[in-house]
Design goal:
13 helices, four-stranded mixed beta sheet, single chain, alpha+beta, 2 domains, about 350 residues
Length: about 350
């Protein structure tokens, strides 16, 4: 069937496959300033595309079923894979994924994939929160209004596979193989390990945010601080450094030393103690300014007249001055007596 427009008919014959971005996303997925978050929108559209099922048709073209575009229970894709696809930097992708997670549009997990011959640590899996994705497609539903919705329980957190081919076909850009991971420390109790598996790996965060070359020395420093404090606190310290634009370890190390002195237990405790410390500083500053010694001002004595004539107090006169004064008074009295006897 023809539309009557040659170009429209030609476009209609194209088999366009890929992302679909609802126009309202540019209005609802925004920064706090109201500006559209284009990187987050592009990544969310890509992830939603992979979660749109592929229809299975029979020989006659009838739909007989559906399947996912990826293997496993969640889509596996790395920051670098997103960056390579869209031309973003790895930092931009990381910030956008953080934004989507914080605003309850995305669930992110880091898993360990192992076999008899290879171990991949902190492999990232992502999954959209369907209910909230649907909400931001409405006219009046900004991303800031979304609330957390518990995602469906996945089958397993640690995946085993017999070979590299067992990975999802979206596994390009997966982290390099490393010996050991700091997100699954066996020295901690099971509840702490469970919490850390869902968090961020300090080593991965160090590399993703370009703190420098990760050699054996820096790996050891990170591991030492993770043992002293925790993985989450080490990551939080690096986040503070990133926010201040100071991508060097000495700044992170200073934060961790301070937290160790304050005996900080976790991220929540660190923030609480920082607020308390800030309050104490403000209080001490006010107390110091309130007890400051006033500027000395000389008060004019009573004997200083408005005309500027100084009358020296009697207690400061010596005997010689007293005698001279008495002599003048006597002469003044004699003068008055002589004047009184003069007849005009």
């Amino acid at each position: 069937m023809k539309s009557g427009c040659q170009v429209a008919d030609q476009i209609g014959e194209l088999e366009i496959v890929g992302n679909i971005v609802p126009h309202l996303w540019y209005k609802n997925i925004t920064f706090s300033s109201g500006k559209a978050h284009f990187v987050a929108i592009a990544l969310l559209a890509d992830i939603v595309y992979w979660y749109r099922p592929t229809m299975i048709r029979d020989d006659s073209g009838m739909i007989v079923g559906a399947r996912t575009k990826f293997k496993g229970d969640m889509l596996q894709k790395s920051y670098q894979a997103f960056a390579d696809t869209y031309g973003f930097t790895k930092r931009q992708v990381k910030d956008a994924i953080d934004f989507l997670v914080e605003h309850h549009l995305l669930v992110r997990e880091f898993r360990t994939i192992s076999s008899s011959s290879i171990i991949l640590n902190n492999v990232m899996y992502v999954q959209p929160v369907a209910e909230n994705v649907k909400r931001v497609m409405n006219e009046r539903s900004n991303v800031s209004d979304l609330v957390s919705i518990c995602p469906p329980v996945t089958s397993e957190r640690t995946t085993s596979f017999s070979s590299k081919e067992g990975l999802s076909h979206q596994g390009e850009g997966a982290p390099e193989v490393e010996e050991g991971t700091y997100t699954e420390s066996t020295s901690k109790n099971p509840s702490e390990n469970k919490e850390q598996k869902q968090g961020e790996c300090p080593v991965t965060f160090f590399k993703d945010n370009e703190f420098g070359r990760l050699g054996s020395y820096m790996r050891g420093k990170i591991k030492t601080w993770c043992e002293k404090l925790s993985d989450s606190l080490v990551v939080e310290a690096m986040k503070r450094a990133v926010e201040q634009g100071k991508h060097y370890w000495s700044y992170v190390d200073a934060i961790l030393v301070k937290w160790e002195m304050l005996q900080v237990q976790d991220v929540k405790d660190a923030r609480a103690k920082e607020v308390q410390n800030m309050f104490e500083k403000v209080y001490k500053r006010k107390a110091h300014s309130g007890g400051r010694k006033p500027v000395r001002t000389e008060k004019l004595p009573d004997w200083f007249t408005e005309e500027g004539v100084v009358e020296v107090p009697n207690e400061e006169l010596d005997e010689e001055f007293e005698l001279e004064k008495a002599k003048l008074v006597a002469e003044l009295e004699a003068y008055r007596e002589r004047g009184a006897g003069v007849v005009m």
